[in-house]
Structures are given as C-alpha cells and as structure tokens.
Amino acid sequence: MTNIPLWLIPLFPLLGTIILGAIAVTSSGNKKGAPENLVGAIAVILPAFSFACVAALAYTMPVSGLHETICNWIDIPLLKVDIGFQFDALSRIMLLFVTGIGTLITLYSIGYMHGDRGFARFFAYINLFLFSMIVLVLSDNLLLTFLGWEGVGLCSYLLIGFWNKDLANCKAANKAFIVNRVGDIGFLLGMLSLVTLGGAGVLNYDMLNHFINMLLAGGHVELIMPMLFITCMLFFVGCTGKSAQIPLLTWLPDAMAGPTPVSALIHAATMVTSGVYLVARLSNLFVLCPDVLNIILVIGALTAFWAAFAGLYQNDIKKVLAYSTISQLGYMFMAAGASAFDASIFHVFTHAFFKASLFLGAGAVIHALGGEQDMRKMGGLIKKTPVTACVMIFAFLAIVGFPGFAGFWSKDLILERIFTDCTWVITGSWLAPVVPMNKIFYIVGLFTAVVTAVYMGRLIIMTFFGSYRGSKESEAHIHEAPAVMLIPMIVLSFGSIFSGYLWADSIGIHFFADSLAPVLAAAQSVDPARAFNSSILLSEFIPRAVEHVNPVIFAALGTLAALFGMFIAWKGWMHAHIPEAKDSSAPKGYAAGWTFMWDYVHAFFVKGVYVAAWICEKIVDACLQAFQWMLGAIATIVGDGATVFQVRKVRLQLGLSLLGIIALILVVLLTGGLV
Amino acid sequence: MELQPIFIQILSLAIFAVGIVVAISRRNIFFVLMGIELALNAVNLSFVGFAKTLPAELSVAGQIVPLFTIAIAAAEACVGFAMVILIFRNRESVDADTYSNMRG
Amino acid sequence: MLSLIYFIVLGLIALGAAVCVLLSRHPLYGALSLVVSMVSLAGIYGLLGSPFLGVVQIMVYAGAIMMLVTFVIMVLNGARDSKTPMFDKVSLFIFPAVIVLAGLIGFALVRAPLAFDATTLRGSVALTSQTLFDVAQTGPGYFILFEILGLLLLSAMVAAVLMAKKRLGSVESENTEGNH
Fold first, then answer.
1. Fewer C-beta within 10 Å: chain A N or C terminus?
2. What span, in angstroms and rounded, lies between the C-alpha atoms of A439 and A549?
3. Closest CB to A662 among C93, C101, C108
4. Is the pTM of this model over 0.90?
5. What is the ipTM of this complex?
C-alpha cells in the first residue's frame, strides 16, 4: 500500500485540531461545555487513523524510504527549502511510537479529564501537538523540522498552563516556553551556519548527506573544522533545550504542573525525545566533529548522574518521574556521544513505553486519591488499586533494567556500547598517563543505574506498600481507575515488557538495529582515530579495538546494579517510619540546594540581564533622549527664526512663491539653460 | 494642418495656468483643492502628449506615469478633504484667509 | 485633420470648463465644471493613443475623486461664505504673475523641436498591464512602484479616517450638534 500519500499522516491530527478547536470555541458559551462523547471520539479516532496509515506504510516501506515533496516553500538566493516529507527507517520508528502512544494516551485522557470544563480545548491542543510532532519527525529538511520543533514547544506551553486560573501553572508554562526558546536560538543559528557552509539547499537531509560525502571525498574536512564544530555545538544547544539536559533542564520538573496525560505524552514519550531524534538525524554531521560527540557524552553523563540524585530527594510522585526522565535522556545522549545512535533510538523507543506507563500509573494513583501527589501521604495502595500497582511495578522493573524487561535490553545495551565504542582517551593529565574515558563513563553509567533503582524503588514502596498515611476520609474514596484509563496503561505495560525483545543482543535478535541500519550505519562506522588527523581535534582517540568482552558480563553487572539498588530501597524505606507531612512537598535544605542547582545558575544569568537592562535604561536611554531633545531644540530655534519670513495669508504666501519660480525660470532662460 | 505635439503642450500649459490661478486666487478652500486637481490633470496631459513623441520602448512611460499621478492625486484628495473637515470643525469657515495661524 | 478637429473641440471644452471653475461662485458649480473638464481630457487621452488611461481618468478622477469633492462640499455646506468677494487684491497680483509664468514656459516649449513618432505604442490594457506587472523586471521597474502605491493609498485612507473621525463627547461635536 505504498500509494498512501505521506501528507495524510499529519493531516488527521490537524483536522482534529480544527474540528475540536471549533467545538471548543462554540461551546465556550454554554454552561456544561462540549459533549464529551463526541469530543472524545473525534480526538481518539483521528490519531488512530494516523497510526493506521503509519503502520500500513511501515510494512511495505522500501529500504531507501519514501520521499514526497509537496511544494516549494522558500526560494531565494540565500536559502532554498521545499515542504516535503520523508518516511525512512528512523522516522518510521519514531512515527510508530509517537502515533501509537499518542492514541493510547488520548484514550486515557478521556477518563482523566472527565468533567473538566476545558475538555474540548484539551483535546484540540493534544491533536495540535501530535500534528507538530509528526511534522517534526516526518519532514525531510531542517527548516520544516524546526517548524514542528516550535509547534511542540507551543503545545507544551499551552498544555502545561492548561489550568490557567492558577498562577503557578502559568509561570511553569512560561518557564518551559522561554527556556526552550533559548535552545531554539541554538537551532536557528546552527541552521544559519550550516547554510553558510553548504550553500542554499543544504537544509534538506538528503542534500546534507550528499554535502557531507563530498566533504569526506574531498579530504579537507580540517579546513572547515572550526565552523563545523560551531554548527554542531549550536544544534546540540537546541537539543539540550528541548531534551532537558544541562544547562537548560530547569523547565521539565516545573512542567509537571500540567495534567498527568500531558506529562506522559509530552514530557516523557515524545517531545523530549526530539532532541535525541535530531542528533540521530544529523548523525552524519556530528561524527565529523568527534569533539562535539565527546561534549555530548560528558553532558549526558553529568545530567544522568545529577538527575538521578535529584530524583532521590523529591517527595512529589510526578517530580520523581520528571527527574527520572531527565536522567534517562542523559543515558540516550551518552549513547549518542559514543556514536551508538541506534542504541540511543532503541532506548528512546523502550523508554517511551515504560515512562508513559509510569506516568499514566501515577495519574491513576492521583485520580484514586482525589488529587494527592505527595508520596508521604500515600502507601499501601497495592490492595486497593491492584491493576495500577501491577502496571507500575512492571514499568519499574523495566526502568531499572531487570532481566527480561525492556530496560534490561536497552539500558544495558547503551552501557555496553559506551564501553566498546567510545574511543576517547585523555593523555598527559595529572591523574594518570592514559585515562580511558570509556571505562570512566561506564562506571558513571552503572552507578547512576544503581541510584535509578534506589529512587524508583523508593517511589514504588512509598506509594504501594506499607500502610496508608493519608487521612481517613480519603482512604474511603480510593478506587481503581475506570476502564478507559486502565486499558492504555495495560497496553503500555505489555510494551514495557516486550518492546525490548526487538533488539535482544544476547539472544541474537537484531531486528531493530537492522531496520535502522540504512540510516545510521554510515555514521556509526566512522572511527575518529582512523578518520581524522589528530592535529585538528582537541581530544585523542585510540583505534576501535575489537575487544572480546563477553556480553554476559555486561548483563550480569547491569542486573547486579539493579538488584543492589532495589535492595537499598527495600532496606531504606520498606519498614521506615515516614514522619507526617505537614508542609509542602518541595525538598528542603541540602536537597533543595541540589535540586535547584541549575535554577540558581539560571537566576544568575537572569540577574545579569536585569543589570544590563538597568544600564540601558539609566545610561543609554538617557543619552539617546538627551540627543533627541537637542535635535528638537535646534529645530524649534531655527523654526522660530524662519517664521520671520511668513505672511499671514496663505494665498499671498503662495503668490510670493510663484514670483520666486518666475525669477528662477528667468535666470535659467537668460543664462541659456533650457533652450 | 495636422495635430502637432506643441498644440497639446500649449493646451496643457493653459489648463495648468488656470489651475494655478484657481488654486491661489480663490478664497473658498474647495476651489483651492479643485485648482490643484486641475493642475495635476494638466501635467498628465503633458505626459501623454510627450509620450506620443517618443519611440516604442520609451513611450510606455508616458502611459504609466499618469496612472501613478492619478493614484497619488486620489490619495492627496482624500487626505486633503479629511483635513478640510478637521479644520472646518475648529473654525466653522471655508474661507482660506481665516486659516491664518502663521505668525510673522 | 479629423484628429485636429476633435482635439480642438475637446481642448476648447476642457479649457472653457477650467475657466468656469475659476469664475463660478458656488463650489458645486465649480465641481461640476471640473468634471466636464476631466471628461474632455479623458477624450483627449483616447485621441492620443492611451485609451486605458482615458478610461481610468473617468473612473477614478471624474468618478471617485469628484464624487468625494461633491460629497464634502455638500456635507460642509461649502457655499457658506458666498458673501465674500471672489477676487481681491491678492488675486489681482496673481493673474499677471501666472500669465508671465505661462509665457516663459510657453516660450521654452515652442523653441523645443517636437514631432510625433510613428512607432509609439498604443496604451492598451494589455500593454499597460504587461509593463506594470513586469515581475521579471525586464523593462523599467514599475512593479515595485505599483506595490508601494498601493501601500500609499492604504495609508492615506487610514490617515483620512483617523483625522476626520468625530471625537465622541468633544466640545466641537457638541457645539455642532447644538447649532443645527
């Protein structure tokens, strides 16, 4: 069925947005709001149609992918861009889980948002988000991807601040949008420098690959290396903004102010992975600058480590999951930094399932407790809400990397590939003559896995085990979530078990890697030690030796880390006495210092901007106004002087001008000017 | 005797002169504006008259520029009459001699 | 020969109507005379090989602009100062000045060698639109001017609306309403 046009895929959610937006606007007058059945049906069916189209296309996609150009968008000497779509192996994978999980979460939201006055508006925004995300992933050039990028940022703002009567939600939405915007500057400047390097048409991905092949064939990559470095760094800044890495990660924990399905869809499964998608899509460009890949590795590792500890200090169930998302994104960037782009995409895939399960389960818990989000007031819910507990425990086992579940295959794959594929060494430092960075990053990753198991175990234990620590009235109201919420959760928990088997290295299944190979294999085969002269790089690389490390050792270490973390969590919180929570769930003391570390850094920069603004206002503005006043004063004085020559009557004045013209003509004629 | 270009220019000059006289020597403000329109018309006539004396490529200008002149005259008439309305509100008079705020 | 006769007839009508504008007392008579003058000028344009321009002249000038003039004259009761003398000392000064000016310009014109060119293009609709909408800029660049002219007209419209708007509750508007 390759004759399904590609533009049909984003068309369905766009139609949904328009229809639901019209319903939302027209129903804003009456008291009850929009008819929930109709709105819910439309909101779910349209993304489901998209998913059906993607699935149909996915089966019959040729190896080179499907390309479709709709029309020309910009055609000026500086820049030539078409609106076109490209359905290749990478976008196929992304689209499958974006539309699939999007449909499931929309179904869940019908139950979660039941009775909310803005029911239709919510689904209009969700469909707009799905449209933007599909455009982001499906586009065949950077500028259209940027359009989708901005669109998902906008929808993130709209949906985080959905309950907009509360000022805190609006501030969180503003923060998300503005921090994203700072990243978007990097993306824009990256596109600009890429166009400077490669000419007007280079923003198209095919043309970009062509350009890179030409560069490599020409053999003089080192001539433009500084410019390439800047370009890749700028793109990576954009990725840190969207995917919440250091330093632009402060918006994601605050984004939990939005409804839980929004957190599941946008801030776990789809939007925050667009940074990883961009790195994978531009992988050919990134491997030309091994220094940038090293920087990505470092930042990914730092983020994963920092966020894991921050998750440990939180009391709010959604904030724990937010920091967990940041930590897992750090893992994905670590994989990208080690040139293992397919491993990072695989982790994106499995992470979507288990993180969405966790968020939806948390939403079901919050729904069951009537809005309570503080874990210190939960406990013992496994008897009252068994299905939710089951779903969350499966997802928990997936995220810590318990053997047999999805995270075991994807996260251990990342750690293994960091060990074998990262060829960066630091020579001549004061620590040791030769520091093999792959071992260092592996140890950091393993340690972070332990901490992951600790804080996730803490979450599960505080929520589901022990005895209920809330009030008696709320205990009576605890009930299992309705079926429309449970079915997506169960489907996603199946995903978090079985999605990992698509690439089970140890038992020889390479389906996922083989399907991605046409797009990513070329980039991954570049060995920086062999490909570049070391004079142009900041770092050194050892040739990628074929180390025969038994993969069973990696699996064993990963499982040990998970079990060790679970054991610490058991010891720490199973039978612990948790003091009664009287104050807000925000962390205090040293925990607050660690959690809000990057907020303090941002506040420093914001203060700097305030100072610059004050200088501008008091000094620069005053100078300019003085200058303007001077000009005005001169004009007034000269004008007052010139009024001496004015007569009262306009007509007489004009007549005198006429006399002057006659005089001029006479002068010209008499001096032989005209004839 | 055939139609010669100088006849057109003389006619244009005459209408222009009449227009200037109307614009300056009449006291009613409407006549001032109408005189300006008359003068602009005369200029258009002059353009078209000259266009007929030019060879093919250059003669197009004589057809196009009067179009622009007509459009600008329309804009100017619009703004001019808006100003007349505004002044009329303040002074209740259409006599141009009463609009004499200029000192001197 | 026939064209000369047509030209003389139309030219006399145009000039005569212009003089009527000069000599009429009521501005409405002046406006109507101006319309006659413009229509005859449109006829002259058609005679001179610019039919498109002639039609535009009638549509825009004689149609739209003079309608605006007539409307404003009637709204503001333009004949209100009809007791004042038509020509005064300043006019006495203007007449000879304009005659001298016209004489000088006429002198310069007559001395210039002018002749009709046979290859002049007729200003039909097709030619005018081709020249005006010449996006590829093969000829003189009228396209940009055309667009700017559109903007100019828009801004003139906006300016006129803003200026002539009645300020609600202002002293002038209350006075006006009270007087009538």
1. N
2. 13
3. C101
4. no
5. 0.89
